[in-house]
Amino acid sequence: xxxxxxxxxxxxxxxxxxxxxxxxxxxxxxxxxxxxxxxxxxxxxxxxxxxxxxxxxxxxxxxxxxxxxxxxxxxxxxxxxxxxxxxxxxxxxxxxxxxxxxxxxxxxxxxxxxxxxxxxxxxxxxxxxxxxxxxxxxxxxxxxxxxxxxx
Length: 151
Hints:
Blueprint: E1 4-8, H1 26-38, E2 42-47, H2 65-71, H3 74-82, E3 85-86, E4 97-100, H4 106-109, H5 114-122, E5 127-131, H6 140-150
Parallel strand pairs: 1-2, 1-4, 2-3, 4-5
């Protein structure tokens, strides 16, 4: 099994029907990243559209040492927040595990990705290692049921 892990993030910068900012909750990526990098894994970052990943400004109110450690590192910001790979350009077989980050932005990104998630979960590898802190309307249980019904 490859030691490379794919981290999937959001591209959604604001709530759908309001002008309120949202995006990736910074700690959803940094805490997982810190653990897997410490364990010696390689990482790729991806998002539905590729490129820029907006940050939920509220996440900075709760940022801790781990968040600031990675946010202040230029190579992390470039790979994880500025230049993510486009999910549809990737081969799931290239990864030993896939981690879906959480936050509110994913409420718009993840539901349309059900077919992609079904393709990923139907392959022998990779393992889905987490769908972290998804807001209640987009719970893991609901996503899992939608994936199952789309197969």
